[in-house]
């Protein structure tokens, strides 16, 4: 019976996967910049849905916040500031198509090869109870490692490797400080250079 | 609920049915909330301006006014300007409404009464609320009108700036409770109102007001409603909209107000845990009593959220609109430093284990005080505790593999 075999999880997976692919193609084939951005939002949002479906809520929310929220709002903002008549309709010539197909195709090959070489992904995990446990533990090891507790340290047999396994906090802080410096620098470079009319105040 | 249905039908259908029921309930919250808040806003605005507001529709107090307006909007012609990008123009209201509806998914209404229980609910809510601006930008761009475009661009600048202090304010309850799960944050504030996070220390008290300011700005309400500034931009991003599509923007706005107020209620005001713990013993009794206690908690939570929305309405009709430079100044020169200062202050308070009002409440020692980890106090058993934690986590990752 069709109703008996209906699985909401599978249905949603197919739905999100299809919309992600469809709108990714939409980004390629539309020539209007704002529509491209809109398609990109839907495509990235669908992949966030895939993350949620896989139980990786933190990654999914991160995808929404950073890619869909931050980057695309900025992208659209930039597009609206720069969308002159010349750039409003993007025409791609044949050479660019060939080049991007070669680069994109090569990347796709690498990713496909990597995906099929993971043995756990080739055999379906049919143990339902196990799946639920997997989902609930999705972000905890990474979060603990960020706070300095590497849970995978206990499994590492090699003492030399174990000594090097520290938490992720320090690199994370360095990267964020670097980003902060870059932001401050960008704000400094972009400041308006207005002539001071009255140096003695007012101005 | 899904388990209950699964006794009578195939599992796939049961889960679909559960999802549909949750979705319909939340849609009811969006619809009824918008109707009620629009009516309330008109009454409050009327009273503040020394007039009556709607009085006739539906007998007393004009309480059916929003429904009548809704029917009127349904019958209006749905038009798109000739210069508009038709597809995007038609889609934009839905793009605006969808995130604010999705945000309700992760917002708990009582202990365990949540559309979708995720352990990163706070982060999810903040991420999703930031997406609502996308519909506004699309509407502004697709209308093909300079007023709309100005409105959309202002909104983009404003929301991108205010996400920063809003996130910093949201992170403080997360750090104090040690979890991003809103259900857990709410449960940890059980007991008397002194256990609410807003009364945890002076810094959390201060940061709530920063959060409130940023929340008002991020849902695009006066005095931060530059995207629709009537006196300058006709009606801003929704100038060209009519009928039901226009009303979708308002449903999105009122629903976002409810969501940010609900988030404040959970993160600072104990969520479903009242000022006085009346239902605590009922909850412990389990069974039907637990459902009654949860229902009371749900009403409690909704009252707090509605109170927050009323505060926003009060602010809107009291304060004049800011200029765009003042809006950005408020964000970058006041809200961000204040939020950062409170962040450091609240964490130090927790780190040095300074007294909190809840310590002087004799009755209930449950909630946050009970779950404070021993290593934070610097007492014995610190190594034991952390070893236990890592062992538990290792066990978790073992299972994960």
Describe the structure.
- The complex is a heterodimer of chains A (203) and B (401).
- Among the domains of chain A are: 7-88, Four Helix Bundle (Hemerythrin (Met), subunit A) (Up-down Bundle); 149-190.
- Chain A is 72% helix and 0% strand.
- Chain A has eleven helices and no strands.
- Chain A has helices spanning 2-5, 8-29, 33-53, 57-82, 85-88, 94-117, 119-122, 128-136, 140-146, 159-163, 169-189.
- The longest helix of chain A is centred in the middle third of the chain and has 26 residues, at 57-82.
- Chain A is extended.
- Chain B has 401 residues and is mainly alpha-helical.
- Chain B folds into two domains: 1-75, no CATH class; 82-373, no CATH class.
- In chain B, 67% of the residues lie in helices and 0% in strands.
- Chain B is built from 17 helices and no strands.
- Chain B has helices at residues 2-6, 11-48, 65-75, 86-105, 121-129, 132-142, 146-177, 182-187, 202-218, 230-233, 243-268, 280-285, 288-316, 324-351, 368-371, 374-377, 382-400.
- In chain B, helix 2 (11-48) packs across helix 3.
- Classes of the chains: A mainly alpha (203), B mainly alpha (401).
- Chain A binds chain B through residues 3-8, 32, 34-35, 38, 41, 52, 57-58, 60-62, 64-65, 68-70, 72-74, 76-77, 80-81, 133-134, 136-137, 139-141, 144, 149, 151-152, 154-155, and chain B through 10, 12-13, 15-16, 19, 85, 87-88, 91, 118-120, 123-124, 126-128, 130-131, 133-134, 137-138, 141-142, 149, 152-153, 156-157, 159-160, 163, 386, 389-391, 393-394, 396-400.
Structure summary:
The complex is a heterodimer of chains A (203) and B (401). Chain A has 203 residues and is mainly α. In chain A, 72% of the residues lie in helices and 0% in strands.
Q: Structural class, from secondary structure content of chain B?
A: mainly alpha
Determine Rg of chain A (CA atoms, Å): 24 Å
N-to-C SSE string of chain B, H for helix and E for strand: HHHHHHHHHHHHHHHHH
- Please name the two chains that share the biggest interface, counting residues whose Cβ lies under 8 Å from a Cβ on the partner chain: A-B, 42 and 45 residues
Report the average pLDDT across residues of chain A.
76
